[in-house]
Amino acid sequence: MVVKLYAGARVSGGSSIVATVLLAKNIPYEHILVDVPGKQNKGPEHLAIHPFGQIPVLDDNGFILYETRAICKYLENKYPGHGQQLAPVPTDAEGQAIFDQMLSVEVNNFYRPMFKIVQEVVFNRLFGIEANQTNIDQGVKDLGTTLDVYETVLAKQKYLTGGQISLVDLYHLIYTPGLAPAGVDIMTRPERPNVTRYFAPLLYSPILCLSSVGVGGGMT
């Protein structure tokens, strides 16, 4: 049975990360369209599979899972021999520890300020709400502090968890691609050459950053 990915018409945000992982893992999937503008995600049928009325949602032969990071880690654990390896094997205690460490950093130190900016410059503007410049400035300041640390980390290694791309790197792309088009060009700045080297190809095409071994998959 083909895995089902419930997502909007434009597979973006967290849904795009799940789709990228499915492709990288060579897992065929079916895109089940959720009409978010029409508020289908708030209807009883969708609430039965995601009580918060959000996307993405994964249906793997009747096993229902929501939340982007949980879905991606599940796919990595459920299909370890498929396509690209995107997390350390369970027996690699040190590798798992570094992975979890940087996952915590991504959630607490990167995603929060990044989403504060996105909320103002993307979502509020989309719904005709005036952006709060104070929130934008604070988000840019906090995100800049995180990127300064990343600059040091990435001076020593190619990716945030080491020499190979991982789920943690992909999680950094949940909403980040929306920043520059909205006028907040913070991810590729000359004062942070290592951060620029890291983010530029990821923002251009995460699939191209993945190993060519096993990358294929497909959407039905």
Automatic annotation (TrEMBL):
It holds the Pfam family GST_N_3. This is glutathione transferase. The keyword Transferase applies. GO terms for cellular component: cytoplasm. It comes from the Eukaryota. Residues 2-83 form the GST N-terminal domain. Its EC number is 2.5.1.18. GO terms for biological process: glutathione metabolic process. One of its GO terms (molecular function) is glutathione binding. Keywords: Transferase. Residues 92-220 form the GST C-terminal domain. It catalyses: RX + glutathione = an S-substituted glutathione + a halide anion + H(+). InterPro entries: Glutathione-S-Trfase_C-like, Glutathione-S-Trfase_C_sf, Glutathione_S-Trfase, Glutathione_S-Trfase_N, GST_C, Thioredoxin-like_sf. The keyword Translocase does not apply.
